[in-house]
Recover the amino acids of this structure.
């Protein structure tokens, strides 16, 4: 795995929210950005089914939060989920600064434990260096209980938090907005979360997380930007890039039709997936998606 210095690494942070649709990802995104920008009503139709992002300037840094559909849910078809995984990758390119794994405080069922295990197993070791666990529904903590105390009650939760370097925080969208107790204050907890992300960036040498999949997408975006510029329209670089992203997303989606969702998620999260994908790409050489040791390939069938 290698990393790249983001063009705006000192003043831009790209944060991806991962987790189940019902665990409060959208509410967490709203708390981080300090305003209601993501849908978060308790209705099946309003929970995140697509990848959305919003950007806001916070403490002299441009914070972009990407709210994803439930990568670890089964409510979306594989085709729908693949489309949204690729959309997320397109928005993250050429790299990201933090994976925020969103989980809910509460009584953990067997299904919940299996989800936590699946999340833990879906991340490659390198990606975990950029991951932090954020619990929602903090009002479910008992009186005097800290989030660290709650995590210790579950072997699976403790293993996940340990793999994320012990980085764990908790919020509550409903009851903690005016609290003075720092353990039960959204303002304090969000501030601590952003500080944790800054510490991760420093520990990782100021570099963002990237891999061959993200670099391939970034290369495609540059290619589409060049094509759009050649059309002669006077537009800003940002506007051209935003127009290029859907083209790249559509091209990749068409080429990766039939690909297993696990393979795509693994490639994005740096997992050593053992899947072989053969599709047509412009380049004449194989391209590895995922970590350098990941056996997930894109092979050009059109080359004689």
């Amino acid at each position: 795995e290698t990393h790249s210095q983001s063009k705006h690494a000192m003043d831009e942070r790209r944060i991806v929210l991962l987790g189940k649709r019902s665990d409060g990802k959208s509410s967490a995104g709203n708390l981080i950005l300090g305003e209601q920008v993501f849908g978060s009503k308790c209705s099946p139709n309003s929970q995140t089914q697509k990848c959305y992002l919003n950007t806001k300037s916070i403490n002299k840094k441009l914070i972009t939060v990407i709210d994803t559909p439930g990568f670890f849910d089964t409510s979306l078809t594989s085709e729908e989920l693949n489309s949204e995984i690729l959309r997320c990758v397109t928005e993250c390119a050429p790299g990201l600064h933090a994976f925020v794994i969103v989980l809910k405080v509460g009584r953990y069922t067997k299904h919940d434990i299996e989800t936590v295990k699946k999340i833990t197993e879906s991340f490659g070791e390198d990606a975990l260096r950029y991951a932090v666990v954020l619990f929602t529904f903090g009002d479910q903590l008992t009186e005097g209980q800290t989030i660290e105390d709650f995590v210790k009650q579950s072997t699976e939760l403790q293993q996940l938090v340990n793999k994320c370097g012990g980085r764990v925080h908790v919020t509550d969208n409903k009851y903690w907005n005016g609290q003075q107790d720092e353990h039960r204050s959204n303002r304090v907890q969000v501030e601590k979360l952003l500080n944790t992300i800054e510490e991760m960036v420093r520990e990782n040498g100021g570099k963002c997380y990237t891999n061959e999949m993200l670099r391939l997408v970034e290369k495609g975006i540059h290619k589409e930007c060049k094509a759009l510029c050649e059309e002669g329209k006077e537009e800003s670089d940002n506007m051209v890039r935003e127009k290029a992203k859907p083209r790249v997303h559509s091209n990749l989606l068409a080429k990766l039709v039939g690909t297993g969702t696990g393979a795509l998620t693994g490639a994005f999260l740096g997992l050593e997936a053992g899947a072989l994908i053969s599709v047509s790409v412009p380049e004449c050489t194989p391209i590895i998606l995922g970590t350098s040791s990941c056996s997930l390939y894109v092979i050009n069938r059109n080359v004689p």
User: Anything to note?
Assistant: Residues 1-10, 42-46, 273-304 have pLDDT under 50 and may be disordered. The first strand starts at residue 3 and ends at 4. Residues 237-255 form the longest helix (19 residues). DSSP finds ten helices and eleven strands in the chain.
